[in-house]
Design a protein that fits this description.
The structure holds 2 protein chains of 2 kinds. By secondary structure, chain A is mostly helical. Chain A contains 8 helices and 4 strands. The N and C termini of chain A lie far apart (51 Å). Helix content of chain B is 62%, strand content 0%. The chains are: A mainly alpha, B mainly alpha.
Chain lengths: 270, 48
């Protein structure tokens, strides 16, 4: 592990130059171990998805069902990221503290990563299941795409140079508006059931085998641990970014003051 | 096993993306940490 030692007196403890802490290390190892168990469960324990019709034909998703354990947790983590961005943005507009703005930024970025993964893995799963990679007329697919695009826009707006408070305020407003789509995406399979290939929630309807249900629940737990680990590191990184911005502003102000003092000195003013 | 290509694609893209993102966050955190004074990295307690 690299450490920042240059400015530390010899008798002071060394502060590591990293965003890791004991908590993130424990969480990281637990997540890795959980992922190893998830792979074992998904490929060695869960049976393939098959049903026998009244005519005696064997139908189902077969082994493609194992894509569920990456697609569904990705969707849950995307919802979590965007939902947290919504709450943090609401809190920012109420209390106007950097902490909430950094939280909103960090969770939105993680939400976008998992949102993109949801679309990609959904497309890959859709090909053997629905015989298509994508359907533009499908309400669930298109609303999910719009949700991800809105939050990519959110991240883009945050990169537009502006005063920190202005940037935080306008991105918070975008998050509040964009998050409305979370509900629409989630409920679309029920509201427009005739306009989507996507199945309704199999988890709530208990339409899947016990082994599959257990492994899916386990994948949520591993996913949440991963989300927490990513959020801790991303939050700390965003916090460091804000600290550097603040330091740069302070340095620039000090330089301007020094220039002004020098100019006064040159003019013979006190 | 059926649909092997789809399974490999779905799982490897997911794992690869998460690993790449996590690696980028860690790398950026380390490089930024070196530019910020210790007293401003307030969550970090000395390693034991």
């Amino acid at each position: 592990m690299s450490t920042a030692t240059t400015s530390s007196p010899a008798n002071r403890a060394v502060v590591p130059a990293t965003t890791s802490s004991r908590a993130t290390r424990v969480l990281g190892w637990l997540t890795l171990a959980g992922f190893a168990v998830l792979v074992a469960l998904a490929f060695a324990w869960v049976p393939e998805d098959t049903r026998i019709t009244e005519q005696g034909d064997v139908v189902g998703q077969f082994d493609a069902v194992r894509l569920m354990f990456v697609h569904v947790p990705s969707a849950i983590l995307a919802y979590t990221g965007f939902g947290l961005t919504f709450l943090a943005s609401l809190a920012y507009l109420r209390w106007r503290t950097d902490w909430w703005d950094i939280m909103a930024h960090s969770s939105a970025e993680i939400g976008v990563v998992f949102g993109v993964l949801t679309l990609v893995t959904g497309s890959i799963w859709g090909r053997p299941t629905w015989q298509t990679w994508w359907e533009w007329g499908d309400v669930r697919l298109v609303t999910a795409l719009v949700l991800v695009l809105v939050f990519i826009g959110y991240l883009a707006v945050r990169r537009i140079p502006a005063d920190a408070a202005v940037k935080a305020r306008r991105s918070a407003v975008i998050a509040l508006v964009g998050a409305v789509n979370i509900v629409i995406v989630n409920r679309s399979v029920d509201w427009w059931e005739n306009r989507t290939l996507h199945q309704e929630s199999t988890l709530l309807a208990r339409k899947i085998r016990d082994e599959t249900l257990f492994t899916l629940s386990f994948s949520f737990a591993v996913g949440m641990a991963l989300f927490a680990w990513l959020l801790l590191h991303r939050f700390r990184t965003a916090y460091l970014e804000s600290q550097i911005e603040e330091l740069e502003v302070q340095e620039a102000l000090a330089e301007r003051r020094a220039e002004a003092d020098w100019a006064d000195h040159e003019r013979g003013q006190p | 096993m059926t649909h092997v290509g789809y399974l490999i694609a779905g799982w490897s893209i997911s794992v690869g993306t998460v690993l790449a993102y996590a690696g980028w966050v860690l790398w950026r955190g380390r490089s930024l940490s070196r530019r910020v004074p210790e007293n401003r990295r307030r969550w970090m307690m000395p390693d034991d």
